[in-house]
Design brief:
The protein has a 19-stranded mixed β-barrel. The protein has 1 helix and 19 strands. It starts with 12 loop residues before the first helix and ends with a strand. The chain is about 5% helix and about 65% strand. The protein is mainly β. The longest helix is centred in the first third of the chain and has 8 residues. It has one domain: Porin.
Length: about 280
């Protein structure tokens, strides 16, 4: 695809991933296999509290087409077709879920050197439409997104943002919730190999005058082991340890503690992902 400003969803993504990705509060086990024919199978089992769920996903790649079929423990079947470069620098994604016949969705993405555009629609009698666009370069991007309900004739959301990305840092400001919330984040890599990083994020909801400030960081102890931690002004402290037990197979243990209520038991999460 074209190297440009990226999608609107990419604005602030690096900071968000450092603060949220791989922090889990349940037990998760994933096994993946693949073949030379382009077929890949992934089985996932999740235990959260006393409830166990799971799913199996099959993915098949052929030239510029990817087909994903997912079956979960409730007998829901989700199928997704992804086709790239129908026209240059484009991607089309179509998905539907059975037995829910009203869950079909069609999304089109177009990426250019200095602009990107996406449009998505729910395929039912009264479709909801989401559109987003960004302009800029890989270094700086301005973007906006909006959602429209064709039944009520009202906008369900509108969001605007700006992101600045450099090799050693990234920053973003996003105005969302129809102008009722603002979020600003900054991530900085402390060394050239990006083994250690720090991040700060502040958000404010105007209707409730509520502010949330979160700081976090990550450090690669070696090529196989990563530690992360985060803390917000409400006293929520999270930490995780991630280790590559064998090539491409990762074990993760994470926990969260409410430092303002130490009488409550901390939450723990475990994850093991085995890949060929």
């Amino acid at each position: 695809m074209i190297n440009g400003p990226g999608l609107f969803s990419d604005i602030g993504k690096r900071a968000k991933d450092l603060l949220t990705k791989d922090y889990i509060s349940d037990q998760k086990f994933t096994v993946s296999t693949c073949s030379d024919t382009g077929l890949a199978l992934t089985s996932t089992a999740v235990k959260k509290g006393g409830l166990s769920t799971g799913d199996v996903t099959a993915q098949y790649k052929y030239r510029n087409t990817v087909i994903d079929v997912k079956v979960d423990t409730e007998s829901n079947i989700t199928t997704t077709f992804t086709i790239t470069d129908i026209i240059p620098s484009s991607k089309a994604i179509a998905s539907f879920k059975l037995p829910d016949y009203t869950s079909g969705k069609l999304e089109v993405q177009y990426l250019h050197h200095h602009a990107t555009f996406t449009a998505a629609a729910i395929l039912n009698k009264s479709p909801a439409i989401d559109v987003s666009a960004t302009i800029g370069t890989p270094t700086i991007a301005f973007g906006a997104e909006a959602g429209y309900d064709t039944t009520s004739g009202n906008f369900t959301k509108y969001t605007a943002g700006i992101g600045v990305t450099k090799p050693e840092s990234s920053a973003s400001i996003i105005l969302g919730d129809k102008g009722d919330a603002i979020r600003a984040s900054y991530l900085h890599h402390l060394d050239q190999p990006k083994r250690s990083s720090v991040v700060g994020e502040i958000s404010r909801k105007f209707s409730t005058n509520q502010n949330t400030f979160t700081v976090g960081g990550s450090y690669a102890i070696d090529q196989l082991t990563l530690v992360k931690a985060k803390l917000n002004n409400h006293g929520k402290l999270g930490a995780l340890l991630q280790h590559e037990v064998i090539p491409k197979s990762v074990f993760t243990i994470s926990s969260e503690v409410d430092t303002k209520a130490l009488d409550k038991a901390p939450r723990f999460g475990l994850s093991l992902a085995l890949k060929p």
